[in-house]
Amino acid sequence: MTYTFDFSFLAEYWPQLLKGLVQTAQLSLLSIIFGFLLGTLLAIGRTAQSKLLRRICAIYVEAIRNTPLLVQMFMIYFGLASVGFKLSAEFCAVLAIVINVSSYTCEIMRAGIESVRKGQREASDCLGLTWLQSLFLVVLPPATERVYPALVSQFILIMLATSLVSQISAEELTSTAARIDSMTFRSFEIYTVVALIYIGLAFVFRLGFWALSRLVFPRLRRLGTPL
Amino acid sequence: MSPIVKLNNVSKSFGSLHVLQGVSFDVAAGSVVAIIGRSGSGKSTALRCINGLEKINSGEITVCNHHLHHDVTRAQLRALHLDVGIVFQSYNLFPHLTVGQNIMLAPRWVRKQSKSEAHEHAAEVLRKVGLAEKFDAYPEQLSGGQQQRVAIARSLAMEPKLMLFDEVTSALDPELTGEVLKVMESLARDGMTMVLVTHEMAFAKGVADKIVFMHQGRVWEEGGGEMLSAPQTPELRQFVGNGL
């Protein structure tokens, strides 16, 4: 078995890879931001007083968590197209990932919300804060801080899962790699390079999330202790 | 003087457990009332009912001209909370906020005070509880006694007409208990109307204008501090005998 590695294609194709990297980063960030917002809303719903609301959110979460992301993506892209909604592959990709990540984020945020003791809510009620004020000022900040590490893991997973959108011909890093591969037949080399790029991107994301945590959790910045 | 708090034949049950069975007593403005009794006698529940934290099943409670009955609305409760402060056994400070932020939160968001106004006021109530230098500390950096004094300051910042204290020293050692009781004593001297559930018999006797002894969900005996030295009922005699 003799195989000579040849990375010379990089000289010609690196601008395309760079573009793919940027597309992957954009796709990931959009999905993470909207996935987090939707997931948090769902978590609020799952911990609400209304039994009906709790049920609806639970059904949504279970339905999404128990089906593959790829199938969800196909349903949205090919399914919606066949009933007449012609949406871009990129839009469908983001939509599918947001729906997917929101269900996982919901469960993580629910754990955070449930970790906030009942007395906290009682204290804020007794100080005259409204339900909404209590939620945003007293419940969600410590809830988010406590589950932040789990959220970051989930977000990195989602960044990696964006590679699946190459299957609906959305433009990003993996689909770019596939295209270069079909032109150069240097599969091993190209996917090795792409894997390294994903590692680098994951590192940058982790660094970014770490910096964000110091920004939005002043207590953590000053004391460095878990809440 | 008309009472600021009036409980009239209040009953409350959790499922089949009848915690309050026709409780009546009142609290005169500017006075200190201590509710004592053994665990499970309903004293904490009675206090929580005054603040609407527990909904009552029957009877009526009047607190600072707010009327509470079994179907009180959220809006009514919110109006009530603007007049009544409460301090809990477990402090319930917000762990992600500094001492100053804990105190300023409600004045800023509920009373809509400006930042500088709230800041000034917070510093003032912190001074009152002897913790002026802890403004920027986080709750976890404080001792239990200090946290409880911050909780008192947080309540005071809303300028309540009535303060409720729910076993606020039960989680503290004797030294820390002393520093919290000192703050409460000075509040009483300033004329704050206070209702406290407590196991501190000496404090009840020394500071309270009226003592309410609860037993099996009823007001068993009530009177001034002298009641503890000369109990009328065997239950109070036994309770005081164990307590002192």
From TrEMBL, chain B:
<dbReference type="Pfam" id="PF00005">
    <property type="entry name" value="ABC_tran"/>
</dbReference>
<keyword id="KW-0029">Amino-acid transport</keyword>
<dbReference type="InterPro" id="IPR003593">
    <property type="entry name" value="AAA+_ATPase"/>
</dbReference>
<dbReference type="InterPro" id="IPR050086">
    <property type="entry name" value="MetN_ABC_transporter-like"/>
</dbReference>
<dbReference type="GO" id="GO:0005524">
    <property type="term" value="F:ATP binding"/>
</dbReference>
<comment type="similarity">
    <text>Belongs to the ABC transporter superfamily.</text>
</comment>
<keyword id="KW-0614">Plasmid</keyword>
<keyword id="KW-0813">Transport</keyword>
<dbReference type="InterPro" id="IPR027417">
    <property type="entry name" value="P-loop_NTPase"/>
</dbReference>
<protein>
    <submittedName>
        <fullName>Amino acid ABC transporter ATP-binding protein, PAAT family</fullName>
    </submittedName>
</protein>
<dbReference type="GO" id="GO:0005886">
    <property type="term" value="C:plasma membrane"/>
</dbReference>
<dbReference type="InterPro" id="IPR017871">
    <property type="entry name" value="ABC_transporter-like_CS"/>
</dbReference>
<keyword id="KW-0472">Membrane</keyword>
<dbReference type="GO" id="GO:0016887">
    <property type="term" value="F:ATP hydrolysis activity"/>
</dbReference>
<dbReference type="InterPro" id="IPR003439">
    <property type="entry name" value="ABC_transporter-like_ATP-bd"/>
</dbReference>
<keyword id="KW-0547">Nucleotide-binding</keyword>
<keyword id="KW-1003">Cell membrane</keyword>
<feature type="domain" description="ABC transporter">
    <location>
        <begin position="5"/>
        <end position="241"/>
    </location>
</feature>
<dbReference type="GO" id="GO:0015424">
    <property type="term" value="F:ABC-type amino acid transporter activity"/>
</dbReference>
<keyword id="KW-0067">ATP-binding</keyword>
<dbReference type="InterPro" id="IPR030679">
    <property type="entry name" value="ABC_ATPase_HisP-typ"/>
</dbReference>
